[in-house]
Structure formats: structure tokens, C-alpha cells
Design goal:
- This protein is α+β, with helices and mostly antiparallel strands and about 150 residues long.
- The chain has one domain: 2-Layer Sandwich (Phosphorylase Kinase, domain 1), CATH 3.30.200.
- Helices cover about 30% and strands about 30% of the residues.
- It contains 3 helices and 5 strands, in the order αβββαββα.
- A 5-stranded antiparallel beta sheet has the order 1-2-3-5-4, sandwiched between helices.
- It is globular, with a radius of gyration of 17 Å.
- It starts with 14 loop residues before the first helix and ends in a 7-residue tail after the last helix.
Length: about 150
């Protein structure tokens, strides 16, 4: 499988204009309550928005909503599910998926609502000290040994 998102740069894209309306549709359909926009995914320039991520709550739980404005080769929640199937780590896990809606050709978007995990940063940018690097390397070894045993694409 090849990620072809960059090929979509030249396609007409009205997602940025439609995203406030789409957010309201998702809120009505899912019960997600947004608090703030965290991120806008862009295709090389400010006018080519292809995804938005909001922090908020879902059924009283801290949650993150990701709305995808371009169809992907594989839904993000499918990547999470395939990763989870092979993950045997007791230290590393992905957020729980609360709600998932696949790409809807008519509506022109997909979305998923995920658990918001609050945790401490392993290190602070731009550089880690020696103890922070040791912590990072421990998690990386755990990831390589127990999380990824085969490609999920």
C-alpha cells in the first residue's frame, strides 16, 4: 500500500470552508463536545486543509475528534485496529476508539473519536538530557519488541 495523499494536492478541496458545518454535523451525530481545535492537517499550503483535530469530551470522557476531509487509502481507525491486534506490550497502547465513521462519499468526510490520553512527556523539545534519552530508548525498545511484528498495510 502506498500513501497517495500528496497526489490529492491538485484536486478541488473545499474542506476548509465546510469544516465548521461538518463539525456541527459530527457533534449532532455523535454527542462530541468540542473544547478547542488542536491541529489542522494541510497539504503544503494554508488553503489546502485535509483534516482537523479537536479536543473535547464524549459521554463525559476526555476525547479527541479527528475529521478527515480527503479519502485515505486506509481509515485511521483501521490503522489503530491493525496495530492493536499485534501489540503485546503492557507499557504502550493506542487510545481507545469511541466512535468511528468511515468515508462517506456523499458527505465528503470521515471521522473518529478517540480517548484523550494525558501523560507526561518523555522529553522536552528541542533536546533531551541523558536521563530523558534513556527513557525514550526504553520505550523504543519496548515498541520494537512488543508492538510491531509485521506491517499492517
Amino acid at each position: 500500500m502506498v500513501n497517495r495523499i500528496t497526489e490529492k494536492y491538485f484536486l478541488p478541496n473545499t474542506f476548509a470552508e465546510r469544516s465548521p458545518t461538518i463539525l456541527q454535523e459530527v457533534i449532532q451525530a455523535s454527542g462530541f463536545s468540542p473544547a478547542e481545535e488542536l491541529f489542522s492537517g494541510r497539504l503544503y499550503d494554508k488553503d489546502k486543509v485535509w483534516s482537523v483535530v479537536h479536543r473535547g469530551t464524549w459521554k463525559g470522557k476526555p476525547a479527541v475528534l479527528k475529521i478527515q476531509g480527503l479519502p485515505l487509502e486506509m481509515e485511521e481507525y483501521e490503522i489503530h485496529e491493525r496495530f492493536a491486534k499485534q501489540n503485546t506490550s503492557e507499557k504502550i497502547r493506542l487510545p481507545e476508539i469511541f466512535v468511528k465513521r468511515p468515508w462517506n462519499e456523499t458527505k465528503g468526510y470521515s471521522f473518529c473519536i478517540l480517548e484523550s490520553i494525558q501523560g507526561e512527556r518523555i522529553y522536552s523539545m528541542p533536546f533531551a538530557n541523558e536521563a530523558q534519552m534513556d527513557d525514550f530508548l526504553e520505550f523504543y525498545r519496548e515498541y520494537k519488541a512488543h508492538c510491531v511484528s509485521q506491517p499492517w498495510f
